[in-house]
Amino acid sequence: MSISKTYDPKEAEDKWYTYWMQQGFFRSIPDEREPYTIVMPPPNVTGVLHMGHMLNNTIQDVLIRRARMQGKNACWVPGTDHASIATEAKVVAMLKEKGINKKDLSREQFLEYAWEWKEKYGGIILKQLEKLGASCDWNRTKFTMNPELSDAVIDTFIRLYREGYIYRGVRMVNWDPQGRTALSDEEVNRKEVNQTLYYIRYAVPGIDDGPTYLTIATTRPETIMADTAVCINPNDERYAHLKGKTALVPLINREIPIIEDEYVDVEFGTGCLKVTPAHDLNDYELGQKHNLEVIDILNDDGTLNEKAQILVGEDRFAARKHIVKLLEEAGYLEKTEAYTSQVGFSERTDAAIEPRLSMQWFCRMAELAKPALEYVNNGEVKLIPDKFISTYRHWMENIKDWTISRQLWWGQRIPAWYNAQNEWVVAKTSDEAKALFQAEGKSTEGIRQEDDVLDTWFSSGLWPMSVFDGTRNPDNADIRYYYPTNDLVTAPEILFFWVARMLIFGHEYRGKAPFKNVYLTGIVRDKLGRKMSKSLGNSPDPIELMQQYGTDGVRVGMLLSSPAGNDLMFDVAYCEQGRNFANKIWNAFRLVKGWEVAEAPASSAQREAANWFGHRFNQAVAEIDGHFSNYRISDALMAIYKLVWDDFCSWYLELVKPAYQQPIAREAFETTKSFFEAVLKLIHPFMPFISEELWHDELFGQRSERDCCIVAEYPKGGVFDEKELGDFASLQQVVSEIRNLRNAKQISTKTPLPMAIYATSDTDFARYAECIQKMANISEISFIDGKQTGTTSILVGKDEFYIDIAQNIDVEAEKERISKEIDYLNGFLKSVNAKLANERFVQNAKPEIVANERNKKADAEIKIKILQENLLNLTGF
Length: 877
Prior knowledge:
Blueprint: H1 9-23, E1 35-39, H2 51-69, E2 73-77, E3 79-80, H3 84-97, H4 107-121, H5 124-131, E4 142-143, H6 147-162, E5 166-176, E6 181-183, E7 188-203, E8 213-218, E9 229-232, E10 246-248, E11 255-260, E12 272-275, H7 281-290, H8 316-329, E13 333-346, E14 354-363, H9 366-377, E15 382-384, H10 389-397, E16 402-403, E17 405-406, E18 416-418, E19 424-426, H11 430-439, E20 448-449, E21 453-454, H12 456-460, H13 463-466, H14 477-482, E22 487-490, H15 495-510, E23 517-520, E24 524-525, H16 542-549, H17 551-559, E25 568-569, H18 572-593, E26 597-598, H19 604-629, H20 633-656, E27 664-665, H21 666-683, H22 688-695, H23 722-745, E28 753-758, H24 769-776, E29 778-783, E30 792-796, E31 799-803, H25 811-837, H26 839-844, H27 847-874
Parallel strand pairs: 1-2, 3-4, 9-11, 15-23, 22-23, 24-25, 26-27, 28-29
Antiparallel strand pairs: 5-6, 5-14, 7-8, 7-13, 9-12, 10-11, 14-16, 17-21, 18-19, 18-20, 28-31, 30-31
Helix pairs in contact: 1-22, 3-4, 9-10, 9-15, 16-17, 17-18, 18-20, 19-20, 19-21, 19-24, 20-21, 21-22, 23-24, 25-27
């Protein structure tokens, strides 16, 4: 095929993705090969592609494509998560737009709307991932509420209940008034919030002497109607006269006892504490200890209920403003102060959390967590980077029971059943429940199922097994072949939400961790360091980026600066750099394809270039393999980037390309094609589209239908000679120094210059003579046995290179430049000598630092000597 002047990413992307799908290259079924398995962290079914997804899935695709090319049976399982809270909120909002209130619907009616919404909008993100080039086995796509996956969740609940891990009870939980559901501790984000501390007077009747009130500081005046005691420290002499007394709740005048407990911090506020057991965890525990009444004054949605007696129906925050005004008017507000404290917010809705007593289902975690902690502690499961191990360990060693019930309709309904007397059993079906009730001698009248659903993380915790039907059918071919999976790529913020729970369930079911390595990506931030978000308007649309810069360009841009566990400071300039890299490869290919071929022997420069690049390529492959084995994906990409741009394009192709309008020797041409094929294989995991497009060019001959880059054998590291590489590096430095010299003297690169070499090292510059001539435009090279005068010299290692530039420079200007450089070096040498003459420095500094200073001295002295010789050589002109 003829190759266009510019690369058209869109045409290549649409063409090759469709072709890969048609040929079934993403498909995986168990066979005799080594499996390589990744399960995709299932994005919310509500989701659309954002930059975090881009980063996460690009890394997964790089790993899976490389494994596929290495001959492994690569299986990447995609899917989506039903995301109970987020999806229900979306459906409720959709219904509201239609004028429908969820409260007016039955559960079945609501779920009909929810499934309809899911079918219409759910899974958009998976189609977007195809644009990214994600080579998932789409035939295996799962949804966490597919019947077989929901079955696995229900079975797991019943199993853990029967093993004694799941229980039901009234506990203080995190309540999300916007989502109207309980949350686990891990679903609460703690934020530093600027608040106001209100100092409120509580009347104390029956005091003959002293103040007839006490003052209490609180940030939540709207909860005073739920107070059931005032607490003082028994050791606080200021309040000794209040022991055994009572106080009146402001505005409603309900009498409450004044109790004593050393829990009260005498230094905080006024040293008095209002005790509100229904709306604070610590107050609840204090209430339990002192047998206090519990008065819950909030509705599910955060409005005040009838028990508040005043401001009934007002939102909690509106009530706060209102009650402050009432307190002030009634003379109960003494003063206010600015105050900063940590407040919990819902991870899903960002609503301020309410601590609330609620009947919920819980999972005991202490025992279950032990094996999951041990997997990481003993290195069987590696967290990458390992800086997250201490965080994980802290979480798991201090784990609390998990609130697993959610007050929602969208999700897996808890398999508990109640009779008319509110007695309950756990069973999969109503028939099984009836049988259990009867076996226990209890009534089966009015049997009904629990309304609550299970926490979404309960289902996603089973993901590496349930996608292979490994809980319901534990001995099937898929689970035996693909489990445990290899690598998990996810975000650090769900290390406990998801990773820990998969480890817990994996051990519970199969006695094995579900994966071997956990690659934790960083957060994608803008160049100012802010987390990308819709609200800040600082997050570009990934689809638009791919349209503008090409998918390969965006993939490269994302990964060039994305080390594991560290945040990515994203700038669109990285995508531009990625696009430029794709264009560089394209133009290099056009150059090679444009050469005419002659049946002639290769030149010395062409053979030396081929010899060097063969060693350099093998060295790079070893380096890249090392980066992959340590999950330094961005370092692997950078190594490829330098190999292709610097070594292949800037050196190899420049050395082998024929003179203008001259043919290239067939030997050099065939070698170049072979190298180009190897380069395409190397870049394919990162740049799948351009590599596949060029792979099929007629330059490489006729390809068969399945002879594609996606399944070509990944380059294996071969031998490389460090001496050969070192010698060529000396050649490169010589060329670089000559180019610098031309630039400094303003001598055109088109002007040929003669050169003499006085070599004292073991580098054989004679074999590289033609390379130097070609790359530095040297007209002739002679080899001499001693130093030469009358010419300008440069030093590379131990070898000196003399270049006659006298006819091409302004002698007086050059003398002035050299003199200034000598003066500068003399000043530098003086400072180094002073440091080395300081006995204290020489005795106390590290040996390597002293050695470095001595190297600086020797280097400066050599440079001064050469410059002085160059200056002397110019005096005759």
